[in-house]
């Protein structure tokens, strides 16, 4: 009887908790995904330790570290999750970080502020990504890593955040020139594309997201696009992208890669013919292939 009562009450209690804690701009299903689905990932691939690298408006922004038991590799990896600068979770990259740590590579997955969750804009997410990178640099000795050998990377919108550190000048007109390499999973490297006319055949869900993300850029989609800051001497990079990606069409990445190589930059670009957005996380066949190429790239850049 007690079990039945708990079974009946649990959904109601969960719904009540979600209703009370839901940010005003976050759709209920999005909040459910954030708290329940993404939340479960924390316990599936739990980090070794987490540190608060910044506090914004009572929000503790954390770096979640996966530390190898033994490693001679001084390079490390800092990753930023995707979600259109509006939603998503650092927990979504825990599996990748855990697998990298097993190969002797320290990996950290970063929280940052999000539009739907924290009522912030892209510029705020970029400020957080810079703070996360600076925190790792300042605390490199704590983890026995080289401050000059930190690789940055990200998925989707997180790719824009990672690239911006090395490519887009900040308010002091500076970039971080000690970044060892850049790692991109279906990255948003051309945000100027947000300003074009929305295709007529796009579905309503993608259209609404497109318009919302455009607002998050506050009219600065071109000024905050890594594709507009390509120059020679950038860190080596590796890109994983699906040819059927409808969120970030692959022709944008083809164009980015060509311009990078024209400037003499190293870009290892791997395409998956039958996969779309976020394929690297869900496709059981593609995931080990992605990890194999990623680990090889990291070790080559570390040598």
Features:
303 residues; 10 helices; alpha/beta; Rossmann fold; eight-stranded mixed β-sheet
Protein described:
The protein is globular. The longest helix is centred in the N-terminal third of the chain and has 20 residues, at 2-21. It has one domain: Alpha/Beta hydrolase fold, catalytic domain (Rossmann fold). The chain is built from 10 helices and 8 strands. It has 303 residues and is an alpha/beta fold.
Could you provide a short overview of the structure?
This protein is an alpha/beta fold. Helices cover 41% and strands 16% of the residues. The chain has one domain: 3-Layer(aba) Sandwich (Rossmann fold).
Strand order of the largest sheet: 1-2-4-3-5-6-7-8
Main beta-sheet annotation: 8 strands, mixed
Looking at the structure, the CATH topology is Rossmann fold
Task: Estimate the helix proportion, in percent.
Answer: 40-55%
Counted by DSSP, the helix tally is 10
Second CATH tier, the architecture: 3-Layer(aba) Sandwich
CATH superfamily: Alpha/Beta hydrolase fold, catalytic domain
How much β-strand is present in the residues?
15-25%
H/E topology pattern: HHEEEHEHHEHEHEHEHH
Number of domains: 1
Work out the radius of gyration.
19 Å
Terminal Cα span: 63 Å
The coarse silhouette is globular
CATH C-level category: Alpha Beta
Class from secondary-structure proportions: alpha/beta
Total E-strand runs: 8
Summed over residues and divided by their number, the pLDDT gives a mean of 88
Which residue ranges are poorly predicted, with pLDDT under 50 across at least 5 consecutive positions? none
């Amino acid at each position: 009887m007690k079990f039945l009562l708990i079974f009946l009450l649990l959904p109601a209690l969960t719904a009540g908790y979600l209703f009370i804690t839901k940010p005003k701009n976050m759709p209920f299903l999005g909040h459910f995904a954030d708290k329940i689905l993404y939340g479960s990932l924390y316990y599936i691939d739990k980090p070794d330790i987490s540190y608060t690298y910044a506090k914004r408006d009572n929000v503790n922004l954390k770096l979640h570290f996966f530390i190898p038991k033994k490693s001679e590799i001084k390079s490390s990896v800092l990753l930023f999750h995707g979600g259109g600068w509006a939603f998503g979770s650092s927990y979504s990259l825990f599996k990748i970080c855990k697998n990298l740590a097993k190969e002797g590579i320290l990996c950290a997955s970063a929280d940052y502020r999000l539009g739907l969750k924290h009522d912030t804009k892209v510029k705020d997410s970029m400020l957080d990504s810079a703070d996360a990178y600076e925190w790792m640099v300042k605390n490199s000795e704590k983890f026995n890593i080289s401050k000059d050998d930190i690789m940055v990377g990200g998925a989707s919108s997180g790719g824009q955040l990672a690239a911006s550190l090395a490519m887009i000048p900040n308010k002091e007109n500076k970039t971080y020139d000690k970044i060892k390499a850049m790692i991109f999973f279906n990255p948003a490297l051309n945000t100027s594309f947000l300003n074009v006319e929305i295709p007529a055949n796009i579905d309503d869900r993608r259209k609404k997201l497109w318009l919302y993300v455009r607002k998050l850029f506050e009219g600065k989609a071109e000024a905050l696009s890594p594709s507009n800051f390509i120059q020679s001497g950038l860190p080596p990079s590796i890109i994983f992208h699906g040819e059927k990606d409808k969120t970030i069409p692959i022709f944008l990445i083809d164009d980015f890669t060509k311009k990078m190589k024209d400037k003499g930059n190293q870009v290892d670009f791997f395409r998956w013919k039958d996969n779309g957005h976020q394929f690297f996380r869900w496709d059981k066949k593609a995931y080990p292939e992605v990890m194999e190429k990623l680990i090889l790239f990291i070790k080559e850049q570390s040598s």
